[in-house]
Each structure stands twice: as C-alpha cells, then as structure tokens.
Amino acid sequence: MPDPAPKKLIFYDLVPRPGGPLFSPNTWKTRLALLHKRVEFETRELSLTELRGEMKERTGWERPLVPIIETPEGEFISDSLAISEYLETHYPTSGPSLFLPSTPSPSPDALASARNFARLFDAGFGSSDAQWSTWFELAAPGLAELFEGEEKEYFVSDAKLGEKDGWRKIVELPRAPLLARARASLLPLRSLLTSSSFLASPTHPGMIDYIAFGRFAMCVSAEGGLDRARREGEAARVWVEEVGGWVDRMLELGGGEVKELLGRQ
C-alpha cells in the first residue's frame, strides 16, 4: 500500500463572505511569503465568526488573530513575522530568503539584522493598530461595508478596535489630512524605489515589500477591487501616484496570481 501523501501546510485567510475580497493586510504578508518560499499550501477562508469561534476552540488561544498557519505537523502559528521565520527555518532551500532575497547564502549576522529591520518596519509602517494606523483609518469605512449583520457589528465594535468609541472617532476623521499623512508615509519608499526595483533588495522582493503591499491590498479591497480602486479610489490612487512602478511589479508576483486575487469583490 503506497505511503499517504504528506500533509500540506494550511493557510487561514479572512474574508467578509465566501469568495469575497481578501482584505486583511496581515494575511497578505503571509500569502506572499508562502508564494516567495514556493511552499505548497492549502488556503482555508474564515469569517470573523469562525475566527472567534472555531479557531479559538481549535488553537486554544483566547483571541485568535490572522494570519494563522497550521503546519504539516499540526502546530498553529500566528503573527506574520513569526510565520515568516518559521518558513525561513523549515524551508531553507525552497525559494530565496524572505529577509535577504538577493543573497544566496546570507550569514547568520546579516540575516539577524535583516530580520530585525523587517520587525521594525512591520511595527511601524505595517502596523494594524487601529488607534494610529493612517492606512487603516482611510480604509476602515469601506472595509465595514464589506460585512453584514453581526459580523459588521463586530468589525466596528470597541472589542474589535481596542478603543472606546473607536469607530465614531474613525468615521469623524477628516479625509484630507489623512490622505496627506498617508502620502507622506510613502515618501521614504518612493525615494528608495528610485534606484531599486523593490524594497528588500534592488532586484528581488522580500518581507519588507510584502508588509508594504498589505497596506495597498487593504485599500484596494476597501475601494471596490483593483480596477475600480486604481481609477477612482482615494487611498489606492495615492499608492499608484507615488510608487506605481513598484505596485505594478508586485501585482505580477505569483505569475499574475496576486493581481487576480486582488480582483475579488
């Protein structure tokens, strides 16, 4: 009798409804990391209700947060940077390094420095803390419209946002200053990209690119999908105007799979 096929890694993504847009900036980081490392994986899409119910029961965590992977050995891992370090350790020869993608055999010291920088960038530009993330503040009203019923109630709740009257504060924010702050946040990226095709290295994307792209993907989902967001969206158009060449290169990753997935609505 043939040996059973090895189990695939399972990647848990978050959707507002079955087949709906992939709106989570954090799960985009992990999806792109998995594609980068050429890991064979299965995607399972969760609703907010399933994340707080089924996944809480399965993981034993008090508050499960995406992204989550389930390893072939049955271990659950959360946090995009923790997942990327797992991939780097367990799939060392499957695709280039996530942290030093143009360096074939990075030294331990160089790899540690690159990991630290990725964590620093993730904690700042890539943060999803609703209390100060400009990109989330811009996208939140559109993201809320992707949900219905109890899921929408939870999305705009203090429990979800982690702040009393958080939703009221978000929707009352004037758009013009938010857009100005968002544009200013892209200036360092634009400066770097004048002499480099990607953020992580001159020629290859890496974890830094995937962190930044998650912000763009969130804006696209909030503004009606890729085509509409690039034409009419306020936040997505800031990305196109400031770092459009990089956006186009990122959209071609995965043989066009990234572009196709961003078209979901």
Write the layout of secondary structure elements.
Layout: E1 9-14, H1 25-36, E2 41-46, H2 48-52, H3 54-59, E3 68-70, E4 76-78, H4 80-90, H5 108-123, H6 134-144, H7 149-155, H8 158-161, H9 166-171, H10 175-185, H11 187-193, H12 207-222, H13 226-232, H14 234-251, H15 257-262
Parallel strand pairs: 1-2
Antiparallel strand pairs: 1-3, 3-4
Helix pairs in contact: 1-4, 1-12, 6-10, 6-12, 12-13, 12-14, 13-14
What characteristics describe this protein?
single chain; 265 residues; alpha+beta; 15 helices; 4 strands; 7% strand; globular
Describe the structure.
The chain has 265 residues and is an alpha+beta fold. It contains 15 helices and four strands. The protein has a four-stranded mixed β-sheet. Strand 3 and strand 4 (76-78) form a beta hairpin. Helix 1 (25-36) packs parallel to helix 4 (80-90). The mean pLDDT is 93.
Quick synopsis:
With 265 residues, the chain is of the alpha+beta class. Helices cover 54% and strands 7% of the residues. The protein contains 15 helices and four strands.
Strand count, sense and barrel status of the largest sheet are:
4 strands, mixed
Helix content: 40-55%
- Write down the Rg: 18 Å
Number of continuous helical runs: 15
| Unreliable segments of 5+ consecutive residues | none
Q: Give the strand order, joined by hyphens, for the main sheet.
A: 2-1-3-4
